[in-house]
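Exercise 7.
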Amino acid sequence: MGSAQAKNTQHEEPRSHTLQQYRDNVQKEKTRQRFEKLLKDFVPDIQTTTPQQLSKFLFSMEKAGRTQYHTCPHAGSASPGNRIITVCLPDTCPDPRRCPHIQNSQIENKCTISSSPDTVKNTVSHMRAIFRKMGKHTRWQEGKLITENPAMSDVIDDHIKLKEQEATDALIQPLQATPIFKSDVDRILDKLRTLVTLAKNLREKVAWAQQTALISLLQASGRRPGDIIRLNVNLVLYLPDKAGIFFVMTIHKTGTTSGISRFAIMRQKSNGNCPVQDIETYLRNLIAYGHNFHRTNLLFPNLALTDNRLAPYSWHAKHSVMRLDVTNNYMSIFAAQLNIKHSVKLYGIRIATALKTREIATNEALKSTMAKGGWTTEASAELYTKYFPASGNSTAPSRLIAQWIAEPARNRVLAMINK
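Solution. The predicted structure, written as tokens, is:
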């Protein structure tokens, strides 16, 4: 029986990965179809489009941009969620006399609102694909050949360089969530664990336990919040000696290029602050609540599904995952109560983790593995050492580790949590 379950687990991974690739490709195709329709409406004949016409089209698209190119005292001061300034107040303005956004300002030339360089690059990449589909796959020279692609030309390259220069002059930086470090996350987690303990009923206990497990796992793993909520509960496994939990992530943002991702989190000696214990508490409460894992195999399902059994399948498919906006709202409320002044968002946990772990020399270890095993590419070395997050963190005897790798399905957390 265990062998059959292991085979099913092995089949689930590539199927989920293929499904995600299909979804990504469908989304890209929809985007390209939209751009193609807009271009057809802009130029007389899309087949004879020139780089100059395409550049004008890109400028027309930038009118819907959401990046403000500041040439005023606000240059370089835009914060996440506040990049476009409509009205500036005198008491918060760095230089009210020279600011065109100041309330009742007589300065007519406001700072331009346009698309960011990354948005323009993304649009150009779609344009290249659209023209390649028409048989235009060579770089534009003089436009004499029907195979010349107007999106692959000096004119478009200069267009992108212009946008990058404008961004540099305006001191525009990529928007990024404010990092929230372990000390503040731990305070929020302590508050959530208290709410789990004081919950008046099982439904409330499950809801707070889910929020606790999600935030605790994000801090321990440093993964994207949007990827974590799509984890398959059947691919969440105990390490051989229950010293931690091993995760197989089949659906994630870079899944189409990097493939399946695996990571492990370890059980902490401190009883009060342990991500493994938070996940165990959450799952035990979810099981007691009577959650149907056959209806959805997500580790973090949308609990509203349990209360809306009569909704059609399409509704369940769209709303199956846990809502991150709700968790972000809770975090903001708790941060205010705990007197945390800066913006607090889930993605800030990932930013903080990245800052803390950047100096860890994992590349050297991978190169050493390649040299010892005779692999010529990093991809091959990673493929054959895919269970390292489990074996490298386990203190169990090697015989048990080998048995675990052979039949990992026997160690599913869902099946072993009460054993």
